[in-house]
Specification:
426 residues; mainly beta; five-stranded mixed β-sheet; four-stranded antiparallel β-sheet; 30 strands; 0% helix; 40% strand
Length: 426
């Protein structure tokens, strides 16, 4: 089903297109290289043989799709992803396969693109146990795309399949200690490499990357569900998590859980938002064009989609210098150093970001302080009533009016922003 956006975060009635036998998962990408986005589904197949296939639905250029072309996979594919796995410039497909009775031998199938949106016979790579979800990313930082799957069983684990550079893969396994239902990747701790987030029925597990595609012991956080998504939901610069909780989830069925990142790859208690109809899958995107990320779930029992639009807290911040004889900043002409001061009225800030001549914060901050509001200079002072300041060097600025914007992110996911003007004169 394709729901076209009306331009404001509402959606037209679905258009339905045929796929293969029992489609379980869908992905999107320009598979035939013509500049528009195509679809591919992983089709489990029917009992008892579970003959797996992938259906490729090429875009006609207007958001309608041609009759599917089917390509073989391993047994019982449950999830599909897309990426240039062999480095030849076009998008390949990979599926996670659970296998079938009596052995349930888990595999990953890689289908390499022939360059025109058709695909070669699958290459199958073993995983540790039946695989149900798959994601793609450069997990070891060597420039090519690797794969990771979540695997079932009483002691669920994650398989990391590192790319040999030619689209073939070797697997390593990392335990979570619980049967898993979903997997995703993102730089959750802000160190520049991709970490893994998984969901089970009761918990969220985060496996932090050691920097080489191996992973530390899984960290467990309350939450869990049937699907997990990654994105900067609260707009503070780090990646948060969102999960779906179906009708059998305890204690909050038929909800979406949002777990906000504290800035270091740990997550505060989940906030739950009600949806209906047994949500099974979740995705994140700016659906209404307002610049922040919204959520959408696919609901099994009600055969519909729920859209949760993000709202922005209405918080105000005034900057009150708390040092002796500070130089006035806003709207004044100054000569020399310019300082931003933070008041000590709040004790739950987790970071402060400074932007120069960028009041809309569209670019990267020029300075980031993780210890705010306690110590802006990187020392050890933890007295919130005595805040230090960071100077901005204005020697490269032209004469005239400029702005400095300070955004204070709070541990509850809200933030406060203030912009002050100043004039540079030699």
């Amino acid at each position: 089903s394709v729901f076209k956006n009306n331009g404001n975060g509402t959606f037209a009635a679905p258009q339905n297109f045929a796929a293969g036998d029992q489609p379980f998962s869908i992905t999107i990408g320009d598979l035939d290289g013509d500049g528009d986005l195509d679809l591919a589904t992983a089709n489990r197949g029917s009992y008892p043989d579970y003959i797996g296939t992938v259906s490729v639905l090429k875009n006609n250029g207007n958001g309608t799709f041609a009759t599917p072309q089917n390509f073989a996979t391993g047994e019982s594919p449950r999830s599909i992803t897309v990426g240039d796995l062999d480095g030849d410039g076009d998008l390949d497909l990979a599926t996670a396969n659970s296998g079938r009775s009596p052995y349930y031998i888990g595999t990953v199938s890689v289908l390499k693109n022939n360059g025109d949106g058709t695909f070669a016979a699958p290459q199958n790579f073993n995983t540790d146990s039946p695989s149900y979800g798959i994601v793609v990313g450069d997990l070891d930082g060597d420039g090519d795309l690797d794969l990771a799957t979540h695997n079932s069983g009483n002691y669920g684990n994650v398989s990391v399949l590192k790319n040999n550079g030619d689209g073939t893969f070797a697997a390593q396994y990392f335990s979570t200690g619980d049967s898993l239902s979903s997997i995703n990747v993102g730089d959750l701790d802000g160190d520049g490499d991709l970490d893994i987030a998984t969901a089970s029925s009761n918990s969220v597990f985060v496996l932090k990357n050691n920097g080489n595609g191996t992973f530390a012991t899984a960290e467990e956080f309350p939450g869990g569900g049937t699907s997990i998504a990654v994105g900067d939901i609260d707009g503070d610069g780090d990646l948060d998590l969102a999960t779906t909780n179906g009708i059998y989830s305890y204690p909050d069925p038929n909800t979406v859980s949002v777990l906000k990142n504290n800035g270091y790859g740990s997550f505060v208690s989940a906030q739950n938002f009600a949806v209906k109809g047994n949500p099974r899958s979740i995705t994140i995107g700016d659906l209404n064009g307002d610049g922040d990320l919204d959520l959408a779930t696919a609901n099994v029992n009600s055969d519909n989609v729920s859209v949760l639009q993000s709202t922005t807290p209405t918080l105000q911040l005034s900057l009150s210098p708390n040092r002796a004889n500070p130089t006035p900043l806003s709207g004044q002409s100054v000569l020399g150093n310019i300082y931003i001061f933070a008041s000590g009225e709040d004790s739950d800030f987790k970071r402060v970001q400074f932007y120069l001549d960028d009041p809309d914060r569209g670019g990267a901050p020029i300075r980031l302080e993780h210890s705010a509001p306690f110590d802006f200079a990187g020392g050890t002072n933890m007295d919130p009533t005595i805040t230090q300041a960071n100077p901005f060097d204005t020697r490269t600025l032209t004469n005239g009016t400029h702005t400095i914007t300070a955004t204070f992110a709070r541990t509850d996911g809200t933030f406060r922003t203030v912009t002050s003007t100043f004039t540079v004169a030699n």
